[in-house]
């Protein structure tokens, strides 16, 4: 799903870049300036985990590639806004150090996977928390829905950007991307549910909003880092 | 497929004492970034702009003593995948049909879009590869920090980078253990076992991550890396940035005026 340089119209690249920058800016403000000894390793390990997961890449007809996203897992552990920041960081590292995803297309990639994927998954998880009882089944169920939906929403945003740029007609890229990502999303849902189940079984305190767990974005009495 | 083996591809290559390696990371980030921006923002058939970008990148690669083989080894991770995906463009773009392959029609518009996209992608990829090969990761972070990237963003990047190696180490240990127990995956993607392994991997990496972080905090880590030598721009740095960016931006603007 990483859009390389050259596939986007400069106007689309600039517009998506502005949208992504403002969303990540809000995410940074919501996370606050401080990470403490509980949140710093969680943020770092989640980032590294998403980074590793996204390296499993395969091409999709019509101009781009597909891979596991990790957005729903990040949102379930960190909450939507911090997940959005972590995904943006991962995508930036991939663009600058591994040449994966274009530097000029970074805004679009952050918008698709970090903002649309991360915040979308976060909204679904938050809705599930409000509407359903706080049980293991409900968390894993909404986790699966959030994982599949995040992948599909990201693929949809990616297709629209490629279509609007005129690189490939929307009518071609949209079914190709959504078709492949319906399958990738199912794989993502299985992995997200398994990972969430394991975390819930041994470290339920790491899950954002689970029975009153303090989120990463909430104030903590002892900020150690970056304050 | 497993990218975790490719972490060495993110390390510095070429001659570490070369004129490019010794440049301030900020000018490398801005200089190589502007090459990418010039190529990407150019119209699809702006071949003089692409040639100019390629010339600058070649110059940087030669000055850094990076062999084509080294660059290819790093670009190979991404580039063929992207070009394969882009190869569908000539068939799906509508326009004047120039040839047919089976039931599919190749269009002239599609072919020229493909050529332009391929050139832009190649320039963007090689430019990022050159940055990665001439600048260490902590230096890229320092450059981002000095270029006023929000501190929390840089901190998250720093932690992510640190913990990528923790995750990679846990993957290696778990693979060894699974092989020792006789696990033979029959399909590349067996979702069930992959999911369970992912859950266990996360918990193990997090457990080690917590201990590592506490050890870092105990040694005085406060969220920024201590810097032995502060970044300072010298005349050669400014010259590098001017040489990399000015002719290309001028060329790009000339093309804009002529169009």
Fill in the keyword field for this structure.
heterodimer, A: 227 residues, mainly alpha, Arp2/3 complex 21 kDa subunit ARPC3, two-stranded antiparallel ribbon, 7 helices, 67% helix, 4% strand, globular, B: 259 residues, 2 domains, 10 helices, disordered N terminus
What portion of residues of chain A is helical? 55-70%
Q: Strand share of the residues of chain B?
A: under 5%
* Major sheet attributes of chain A: 2 strands, antiparallel
Radius of gyration of chain B: 23 Å
Query: In oligomeric terms, what are we looking at?
Result: heterodimer
- Overall 3D shape of chain B: flat
Q: Which structural class best describes the helix and strand composition of chain A?
A: mainly alpha
Unreliable stretches of chain B = 1-5
What is the count of DSSP helices of chain A, taking H or I runs of 4+ residues? 7
Proportion in helices of chain B? 55-70%
Query: Uncertain runs of chain A with pLDDT below 50, 5 residues or more?
Result: 218-224
Indicate how many domains the architecture of chain B comprises.
Answer: 2
Short note summarizing the structure:
With 227 residues, chain A is mainly alpha-helical. Chain A contains seven helices and two strands; from the N terminus they run ααββααααα. The longest helix of chain A is centred in the C-terminal third of the chain and has 33 residues.
Structure report:
The complex is a heterodimer of chains A (227) and B (259). Chain A is mostly helical. Chain A is built from seven helices and two strands, in the order ααββααααα. A two-stranded antiparallel ribbon of chain A has the order 1-2. Chain A is globular. The termini of chain A are far apart. Residues 218-224 of chain A have low confidence and may be disordered. Chain B has 259 residues and is mainly α. Chain B has a two-stranded antiparallel sheet. In chain B, helix 2 packs parallel to helix 6, helix 4 (79-86) packs antiparallel against helix 6 (108-134) and helix 8 (151-180) crosses helix 9 (191-218). Chain B starts with 24 loop residues before the first helix and ends with a helix. Mean pLDDT of chain B is 83; it is low at 1-5. The chains are: A mainly alpha (227), B mainly alpha (259). The interface between A and B is large, with 78 and 87 residues.
